[in-house]
Amino acid sequence: MRVSSIAVVAILAGLPGVAGAQSAPSPLTVTSPTLTAGQPIPKQHTADGENTSPALAWTGAPATTKSFAVVCEDPAVLLPPTNPQPFVHWVLYNVPAKAKGVPASLPIDPAAAMPAEIAGAIHGMSGFRRPIYRGPAPPPGKPHPYHFIVYALDVADLPAGLTRAQLTEAMTGHIVGQGELVATYERKPPTPGR
Amino acid sequence: MPTNLPGTDVVVIGLGAAGGVAVLPLAEAGLDVVGLEAGTWLTNKDFAPDEIRNNVRDWPMAVQKCNHEVPTHRVNAKAPTTRAAGHVMMNGVGGTALHYWAQSWRLSHFDFRPVSTTTARYGRSRIPAGSTVEDWPFGYDELEPYYDRIEHEIGVSGQAGNILGTIDRRGNIFEAPRARAYPMPALRSTGFLDRMTAAGRALGWHPFPGPAAINSERHDGRSACMYHGFCNRGGCHANAKNSPNVTTIPRAQKTGRLKVVERAHVTKIEVDANGKVTGVTYVTGKDEFFQPAKVVLLSTYTYENSRVLLLSTSKAFPKGLSNNHGQVGRHYMSQSTGASATALFPFNLNSWYGLPAQGVAIDNWADDNFDHSALDFIGGGNLWVYSDRRPIGAANMQTFGRAPSWGPQWKAFVKENADRVNTAYLQKSTLPYADNYLDLDPVAKDPLGMPVCRITADYQDNERKIADFIQDKMELWYRAAGAIDIVRGPLGTMGLNTHAYGGTRMGDNPETNVVNRYGFSHEVPNLGVLGASVMGTTGAHNPTLTVQALAWRTAEHLVRNWKSIAS
Amino acid sequence: MAERAPSRRDLFRLAGTASAASALVSGSVTVTEAATDGEQARPRARTRPPREPLKALTAHEADLLDRIAELLVPSDANGPGATEAMAVRYIDRSLAGALSDQREAYRVGLAALERYATQTRGAAFLKLTETNQISLLIDVESGTATGANVGFDGSSAAFFTMMRGHVMQGTFGDPVYGGNEGFVGWDLIGYPGVRTVVTPAEQKLLTPPTRTRASAYENPMFNKAIVQQKPAGSDRDAD
Known about the structure:
Chain A is mainly beta.
């Protein structure tokens, strides 16, 4: 499929609590051949389709980048009640610095190799407690926002099996670039009489 | 119209661990006893080592009464109710003691006198807010002779730690003193349990084998335990588990004075205009009977004890039998047995065989055995590690985040680790609270159209703090033995539990207790209650031996005071 | 998106899994695998036990469950799995007897699963690639398939839990119930088997005892009629 539009760039303010010498992260421009900012995500990337991960592309990473991380989360679903965090659909990190993006349909078998363009990348644990991409499956009736966030980091080789929260902690102080693409998805309520 | 039966001296409702024991002193004393049991007799032919039947299909029994009456639960009065698919108890002659773990502990001095002990050591303000806890109307010393009696009547195996003040370090150095040794030595150890014992000692703690109502050697004409691994929710094929159906009930029957009625579903305890019990109405299939009795002992398990009283309304007791003070259902507790710890070891444990009562205990962190001055809770927990594993259970093992629950990675994980995981049993002190009680559900009914029991209860801060503390200790112990990963289970909520207490609490004050210090109703002189429903605290150990000691004591009191109670 | 025919690369991309040829041919007796260049060598011809006459399931339902069971407990380098254990035979026998209350749950759940396969991945479940079959099962397991409105009764996760539970019982339970054929399940996890007597030495060692190979019910002392009994509470009125 061809790229049909350019995603809107989200520019982030500087990180909290970072003192002195560190400059604000460079803004990354995040695009996708199948996702459009503010528009519904195509079914193939959701539980209403094959549930395969979308391709992403990014530009604007600074020269200090040693690896990339990608997270997809839904801030409309906040869990657990004691410490509400967005529900996490995708955690990917140790993406090599030379990568300009990630291809679509990353493997769901942990034993399978990642595509050569992102050799060395590993999945972290999603909110579904599996180290894979699982796309939108919102409760029916209203659209949810899905934030595909890309981080450029000045570190690499993060340990395996990290959750989003653990990844956030590992990235703190090392984010040299950040960007996101926000798309939506809505499920229809069941047809009466089914 | 129910058929009137010939009268008897005593009706015992329910022949489980409590009722099944009480019938013996009554029958031996020459009283005529009718034991009404909702379930049936079972024999060791019914007790195959079959995991699907025992553990997966949840002990199918000929009589499903308790499964039709599963209580509902809500965490507080504002929350919606939920209902489990099946009950934790079973109906049968011998009751849930047919398949229980048979751990047989005595409680400690602290458990009988938590208020005065805490007040003296740490100050009254350390009693948690909202708790309705009282000291029991008597201390451990009063019950000691009955503990001793039961241990010898039914056969309990164990290693004493304190005989009349002399400490034996092979046993529990913290236990309250006992008059003599157990009638049988403790169940044997295993390679894995030896390792845990050594690790406990290396931490400076005091591990010891636990007591069990299970033969460790040939006893009373029956086999020793065979350690075959199906004791957990399983009956004993060797008749080595000392449930009442193989111990006290047959002995009571030999006196000729006990009549056991199976499939007897009691619907109401009847009273006369003066508020004295006259007998019991029950149904068997489609037939209804009235069994007159001079005295009734209610021993149907904690939930049902409160429920039968609440359902037995009359002019004298419009809110339920013995409930004019509004105390029936009050001071309910599910013992805090959640908040588990599961460990992964890098080597096989050979734990396929054994039984839950075959284990090693640490009581350094139980009761008031340690200084609570700098802590923010009272009470503690028993750490229990045991040998017990079955194949389907192993296939459902905790994967420590290392594999999903199916597929090739899962298969590789369980192939390597099926025998490398162990879960500890952590019983923790639990208190009664004003907000935790039993009553009748306004909606859910049994097949006879009668409301089921509703549990309104949740753990409070004291229980949560003990849970964190005890999980910390258990993790230390597991890691000292070589564990490489630990998963902590959630505490959960105070729902249906095999260790359920309260609802007919025992105490001197009729404003806050249903039965007196002998287990007889403050309001109804010829009604007695047996079971953990009379207990005011849980302690950090299994209830059954205490339940049986109390039941024997109540029966003995009845025998000694027959004229005044029965007339 | 229309489902294209699985390529050899699809079939054998996943290391250590069972042959995907069985996904396309239901009820076959002999399943063969051919390794592609660069793939790990795998056992060659592997015979799946012939299916016995069904008592409760339809042939198509049994085909679906055969494939699902194979994905849940695969036959691979770590040994035989649910297929060799005849786990689906356990399910079929149970649904015809003690678990008859759950027969309808399978009819509804498997029909919903089929609809979910067509609706989301463009083909009947048995015609999907192995990757898509696994991806679908993950969505059923997590409950996200529920919102696709394909007719799961309640959450799809509840249906998955029941199915997985039965496959595990059929792989690791006592053979008297129809599964754990040849003690495949017990051998996988190293369970030494049912014994009615366990000696101190058998508990002292840090390696397990020799394997007994017998159902509990080969011991004539046990009442075999118990096996047919329905689970606790199964005849309780719904409220």
